[in-house]
Amino acid sequence: MIKLSINGTERSFEGDEEMPLLWHLREEAGLTGTKFGCGIGQCGACTVHVDGEAIRSCSVPMASLNGAAITTIEGLADGDNLHPVQEAWIEEDVPQCGYCQAGQIMATVAFLKDTPNPTDEDINNGITNICRCGTYYRIRKAIKRAAENMQTA
Amino acid sequence: MTELSRRNFIKSSTAFAGFAVVVSNTPALLAAEQSSHSGIGTCMRFGEDGLPVLCVPTPDMGQGMMTTAAQIIAEELDLDLSAVSVEFLPFVGVINDDGIAQDGELVQGAGGSHSTMDLWPALRKTSAYVRALFIEAASQKWGVPATRLSTAGGFVIDQKANEKISFGELAELAQTVTVDKKAAQPKSISSFRVVGKDAKNVAARDIVTGKPVFASDVSVPGMLHAAIRRCPHLNGTIVSYDSTKIEMMPGVRAVVKMDQFLEDDQTFRVIADGVAVVADTYWQARQAADALEIKWNGDISKDDSTDLILKKCNALLKDGEFKQVQKRGDIETAFKAASQTIDVTYTHPSWAHACIEPHNCIADVKTDSAEIWVGHQTMAAPANIAKKFAGIDAAKVTGHFYRMGTGFGRKYVQDFVAEAVVLSKRMKAPVKVTWSREDEMEQDYPNHMGAYRVRAAIDSKGDLSGWHIKTALDTGRDWVARDFPAHTLENTLGEFAKVPNHISHGAWRGPSHNSGAWVVQSALNEAAHAAGRDPLEFLVALYNKTGTVKAPNWPNMDIDFRRHAALLEKVATEAGYGKKMPTGWGQGIAVHYTFVSACAHVVDLEMIGDNNYRVHKVTSAIDCGLAVNPLGVRAQVESGIMDGLCTAKYGNFVFENGVPTTNNFDSYLKMRIDEAPAVVDIHIMDFGDTDPRGTGEISLPPLIPALTNAIFAASGKRVRKLPISENL
């Protein structure tokens, strides 16, 4: 049996341990904010945090998650108070279709923990999620805005 | 359009006795009372909290229609966008005499960048009419003349009596009063408070908090999951499969043969020959489907290889037979009199849609009705698909519509809905079909590929005097051979030929324009250089001389090519076009109209070695008529820029012996943030239009030639074959 916590709630899992975390989140935990995009860890639409680190949940089997603490997009805000990265995404009007943005936000939150004051080059190296709408220009602005807001907060 | 003598309205999901009216753009008004939408008019209803909910008739796939339509409604109803919620309207069209569901006055589809243009008259009039109903209701309630009442912030206001009453309190009464529909006129442009102002995506908070806003997020009780193995060979078939091993796998309920369904004279694929595995969960269905052993027959398409098709296209250009699709004046006289000529050939491969949300659909087909949960570019489509594939009366189909994780023209097609309908009927249960990324690419309806030969004549004054274009494509799309400058210059010849193949093509963001603009704007750039003229000055002179032509599909709209000149001058000024740049840097300029809107770009880039480059800045100017949401227009221009940069550099959807082999993001590459320019400077032009034109597909086509022209300026290398990453 796999025991893990998702957004602070303890859960146990007894199914196919080869199943990627993504499908546990979407189909069993009812957390559909995390998206399926490619299934091979390329696009990042499925990005969540495992023990604080951004990972691509389509490529992480349940077997590797015993004792892990998972945070998904649904667990990022504190009640009605959005995370500064979510706020920045709204303020910069980033989302177009919106499908990849949960993954982009989760990737950014983890990125800013390690790189609180990122340069363009840091962003280029640190954010690798695909956005098919091409919101990259606004994502870059939102990352910088979030970084600024988090430093002055 | 078919004459609608029988107007049955489709039942909506929120069906109960209601009242809806669409105020037509034409004098004929649609019969209102038959619609089952429960709102006050089709444009709004009240939520359980009594607050207004704006109902958007058109799908949103990222092009921002949910926000744009909400602005139009909010404008006419004097509502504050921040004080309302917004949802999609169910399908409220009609069933014609042939039993086919189709749009009524409100167009409920998204394609061809038409949505805002389509909605603008009908939605404004409908919303203005609803506002008049509230005023009339208040007038009756207070016993005062309607003429002294006004509306603001969701209230009817009687300034004289210093009274106000909320729309919500008037809801019941408003459904019983009548007003002269002709008298309920939309506002004048000068009084707009919401339209023409920046509005952020109304779904943004739901999106950034991970709310279930996509069809793929939906579950319905008793739902089964299907994963489908489809023949990877174009129009190929199954020889045999052995399901004995997988039938015992966990959760598997059924293994269902999916029969190939082709249309358009048995060439266009709607359902691929395949096998569906239906299971309790998607993971179980996927695992079992992947384990299934299938023997395919792909003989039919064994010659459909990208390399071979492009070779055939290029061979045709040398000595093949072509059909004349445009002819003006005498092209050979122009070439005889020419002081300079160019003769150049351009080639590009197919592009895949790569919709970020892989296709999915839930269907629940019952004996004589059906429900469908989907994100689709045409809201009439699910009803017609259920009719076609399960024999359900289109009027008995309820559609539930969601945002699409991009569409680009791909989610216009029937296949993913048809599969869910077929499987639900078979399983007698709700079935959710979820495509993998590989499915999405292998079964794409891609953009065309082909080769284009352009001969251009330049006269003694250095002006373009003759244009001879031959296009050899894998589709029947002859647009680029017929259109600018083939349809405006004095001496032109446009010729077209098609290489037969088994690819089912689809609409891909800016169909025909997407690569056609690259061909035309590259050749014009080459012609300018041959004439010894600066490309900007050459283009401005050409467009100013061209004047105005009627837009073929929009009878009330013109293409005024002098606007192209103005767009070029604007981007040139804003970008400092022609400024001195370091060695290895360059600027490229291009302009193009797609449908009835136009966009110009200047791309600033720096070469990285001989074979790579970095785009530092893109400066753009768009003519999209009246910009309902300038912030959204800029988003769409940005989107087209990024898609254009990405497609030009990496877009190469490869067929090998009839099999698409670039089937995920490790082989069909997409640009990421590291290659996106950090500076994008967009200017929305105001030519005094009082109506909107399109936006979603407009900025991509001219981006590609602006990029390749910049590469030429920076390196002297002329890109005549895409993708750039494989040909520089």
Quickly describe the structure.
Chain A is of the alpha+beta class.
Question: Would you kindly provide a written description of the structure presented here, covering whatever features stand out?
Answer:
The complex is a heterodimer of chains A (153) and B (728). Chain A is of the alpha+beta class. Chain A has 2 domains: 2-74, Ubiquitin-like (UB roll), CATH 3.10.20; 84-152, DNA polymerase, domain 1 (Orthogonal Bundle), CATH 1.10.150.120. In chain A, 35% of the residues lie in helices and 14% in strands. Chain A contains 5 helices and 5 strands, in the order ββαβββαααα. In chain A, strands 2-1-5-3-4 form a 5-stranded mixed sheet, covered by helices on one side. Chain B has 728 residues and is of the alpha+beta class. Chain B has 17 helices and 33 strands. A 7-stranded mixed sheet of chain B has the order 12-15-10-22-19-20-21. Chain B has a 5-stranded mixed sheet with strand order 17-25-24-23-18, sandwiched between helices. In chain B, α2 (115-142) packs across α3 (167-174).
List its traits.
heterodimer; A: 153 residues; alpha+beta; Ubiquitin-like (UB roll); 5-stranded mixed β-sheet; 5 helices; globular; B: 728 residues; Aldehyde Oxidoreductase, domain 4; 3 domains; 25% strand
Number of helices of chain B: 17
| Shape category of chain B | globular
Question: Overall mean pLDDT score of chain A?
Answer: 97
Strand order of the largest sheet of chain A: 2-1-5-3-4
CATH architecture descriptor of the largest domain in chain A? Roll
If strands are numbered along the chain, what order do they take across the biggest sheet of chain B? 12-15-10-22-19-20-21
CATH level 1 class label of the largest domain in chain B: Alpha Beta
C-alpha-based Rg of chain A, rounded: 15 Å
